[in-house]
Amino acid sequence: MKPTVAPFPAARLRRTRVSPAIRGLVRENTLTTDDLIWPVFVRDGEGIEEPVASMPGVLRRSVDKIAEAAIEAQALGIPAICLFPYTDAALKTEDCAEAWSPDNLCNRAIRAIKAVAPDIAVMTDVALDPYNINGHDGYVVDGEILNDETVEALVKMALAQAESGADIIGPSDMMDGRVGAMRSALESAGHRNVSILSYSAKYASGFYGPFRDAVGASGALQGDKKTYQMDPGNSDEAMRLIERDLQEGADMVMVKPGIAYLDICYRVKTTFGTPTFAYQVSGEYAMIQAAAQNGWIDGEKVMLESLLAFKRAGCDGILSYFAPQTARILNG
Ligand code: PBG
Description:
12 strands; two-stranded antiparallel sheet; binds ligand PBG; TIM Barrel; eight-stranded parallel beta barrel; 37% helix
């Protein structure tokens, strides 16, 4: 639809910007606490909150502290938390068996959250990298990332998470066929109401650097992830991946990273009209925090503006490390 504009001075477009009241009336998009998913890092131990150097303001928390964070999130009205484990190097193996252990950090954290904050939806990440000795999301044999063998392992991992009480399974591995395999395994096991939020269009990005520090995967990673994560030059391919994942039974889809990929978010939402999420990843968070700490930008302003931009692009929600800070501001 083409907006109609009368000739000047009949139309003075500044009229609708004249006061906060009028601006509020005509505002097209808003950010609310309902739009936020808070990614958190889990580590072992008790009573531990440890700063992540490359992500100022972000902590690795032991399971008891994760439970406290969930209570805080619930009080702030944040609907969902997404868990990322910082796994002890001694537990990383070639077969990644820790990934589907019922007692791994992620699964213990799910149960701990469910016990104290039942209203929070718990989302998980499904990929082998936190458990893999070589830092890749899939099994590596002779330098090749194996697809089908990895999918089998991911299905076991997703089932263990659902068994522990996860509400939303988030495959972030970019293997082919994993959404369908997980969906049918979840159905067979009776987990009919567990959602899949697929990291469908996930790019091989430099913006993940600080995250790999946070989960202790940077040192381990050999090579890059370009044979499974997407080429930043592609857009049509993202549409094919989204369509494929929806056909395999994804309930919601994600574009990742965020700000540099808003064109993809917009295209996904207008093409499929499906619940669409974006991940404002670690590097985006770190850039905003670093500039703010140097006094080069107003951190709060840029945080809120960046999150609103996702809504304008068509996203229904955003995974953001800024979730609690944002919710505090939105709640006044
Ligand atoms: C693991 C995973 C990654 C992120 C989320 N899940 C890193 C990667 O793919 O290397 C990145 C999140 C962030 O940077 O904040 N598959």
